[in-house]
Design brief:
This protein is of the alpha+beta class. 43% of the residues lie in helices and 21% in strands. The chain has one domain: Endonuclease Chain A (Endonuclease, Chain A).
Length: 100
Amino acid sequence: MALIQGGVKIYEYTPGFIHAKSFLSDDDIAVVGTINLDYRSLLHHFEDAVLLYRTDANRAIKEDYLETFEQSALQTEEDAKRSVVWRGICEIAKVFAPMF
């Protein structure tokens, strides 16, 4: 909820699940790859990604994001409050994450 209160827009993809990992910053810098931003992935697994700086691919990534947002629901503070049980489960799971 703190992210939403801070002005971050969070979207839930409603048709299903997207496993892709990509980032786009200011239309100039993009990262696409298998990396997860967690302790286990960054330290123990040999995951990789491609850094794209001012390429035509960045435009295609942005277009894909915009199409995905049209199929997604913008999450509100109320949505975040409803997921308090899920957040509790995630906090408990964090304890075990370094073990794997």
